[in-house]
Write a structure and sequence with these properties.
Length: 412
């Protein structure tokens, strides 16, 4: 595993000051290379680059990245009068799903604008030159053309059937299989347009943007605030119904579904087992609750604890990723089967995405309901948890439902 840094000053000069309420944070982003982490209108956005770390892969990539950031931030000259999570120097990051993936990036922006709990702040790294000027107004994508991804639908359904055979044969308990589709626009796609649409449509999700990866994830992998850690496990899904009565019926079937409850149990138990050695105490619910989003309903388990020692949020991410919610169980067997059956490189899809500050506080989600933007091209992803009772046709329908948030973000 290697880390490479682009040009950065030997010592960052960082100044954070309180500012009046900036209103819509996404509207303040001055150009398309946006960095963002927003939920219900609160969070942080950033732009420019004071430093960039590129992680080339390896099992220790999270702890190595945390060490590099501690060194970079520890040497910084910081004047932070806000002193809240997300103030001072912050790195936005997204990591590849697979430890072998070279596609992981941490960016320390030159400007960070944040709002939380009625307080707002602006962080400037380096020279202060009109940081809130709107350089390029956002333009919606036009001329979208869609094409299939790595596997046609019938081949992906066959991969699901093959996975079910392996599970029933006793090789593993669960595997998550993903698919991709591609859109091309007439002009380069502006991440700010996608962010604005996603944040408005899915306010309860974490709307994010980092190095071209844009999405709105419902899944909080980990939040660290001081010694407190929180996670929200999601596994087990059904599409929303067409009426309130249909919604209630679907939610009831989901909650009673042995297949979905088994899928959820795998994910919740893994998070519990990963966090227990790190925590002085941990609260895990006995059974999941229902989380209703505009397009789907999930089984959800909120987990909360207190760290037994001082660890960066990235150290906790290292203990958690990959969860059964995005990989399967046992982890190594599921990961090998993903590499065999998916027929593609996920890149940063289903990897951790979020931010970390100089105190080690931060919020990291799992990069779901997302697309990788590269100029005029957008690559969309959706994944489904496969267990012994999975039906390929039903899983294909679930994947189609999970594409819709990003299709909406592109089309409007």
């Amino acid at each position: 595993m290697k880390l490479a840094a682009t040009a950065a000053p030997d010592r960052l000069t960082v100044r954070t000051v309180p500012v009046p309420d900036p209103g819509d944070l996404i509207a303040r982003l001055p150009h398309p290379s946006a960095l963002a982490w927003i939920r219900r209108g609160e969070g942080i956005v950033g732009w420019g680059e004071a430093a960039r770390l590129t992680v080339t892969g390896g099992d220790d990539r999270f702890t190595a990245a945390a060490g590099m950031l501690r060194e970079l931030f520890g040497a910084a000259a910081v004047d932070d009068t806000a002193a809240v999570p997300g103030s001072g120097p912050v790195a936005f990051g997204s990591f590849g799903f697979d430890p072998k993936s070279p596609d992981s990036t941490l960016i320390v922006p030159r400007r960070i604008l944040g709002r939380r709990g009625g307080r707002a702040w602006l962080t400037t790294i380096g020279d202060d030159t009109d940081p809130l000027a709107l350089a390029n107004p956002p333009q919606p994508p036009t001329g979208l053309r869609w094409s299939g991804g790595a596997l046609p639908e019938h081949d992906w359904a066959a991969a699901v059937a093959a996975a079910v055979d392996r599970i029933r044969g006793g090789r593993l308990g669960k595997v998550v299989l993903a698919r991709d589709i591609t859109a091309r626009a007439a002009a380069p796609i502006d991440a700010r347009v996608l962010l604005r649409r996603l944040a408005a449509r899915f306010p309860a999700c974490y709307t994010f943007s980092c190095a071209g990866l844009v999405g709105a994830t419902p899944e909080l992998l980990i939040r660290r605030t001081g010694d407190t850690v929180e996670s929200l496990v999601l596994a087990g899904t059904t599409p929303r119904g067409g009426t309130p009565a249909d919604d209630r019926d679907r939610a009831g079937r989901l909650f009673a579904s042995a297949k979905d409850r088994e899928e959820h149990r795998y994910a919740a138990e893994m998070v519990r087992d990963a966090l227990t050695p790190l925590c002085a105490d941990l609260t895990v619910p006995d059974q999941p609750e229902l989380l209703t989003l505009p397009n789907v309903i999930h089984l959800a388990s909120p987990i909360r604890g207190h760290l037994a020692s001082d660890r960066s949020v990235l150290d906790v991410v290292a203990a958690l990723h990959p969860t059964p919610a995005v990989c399967g169980t046992p982890t190594d067997t599921a990961l090998d089967l993903i590499r065999e059956l998916e027929g593609m490189d996920r890149g940063r899809y289903a990897g951790p995405v979020g931010w970390v500050d100089a105190r080690g506080d931060g919020e990291w989600g799992i990069a779901l309901r997302c697309a990788e933007i590269d100029g005029t091209r957008a690559r969309l992803f959706a994944g489904c948890g496969i267990v012994a009772d999975s039906d390929p046709a039903a899983e294909l329908a679930e994947a189609r439902a999970k594409f819709r948030p990003m299709q909406y973000a592109l089309h409007g």
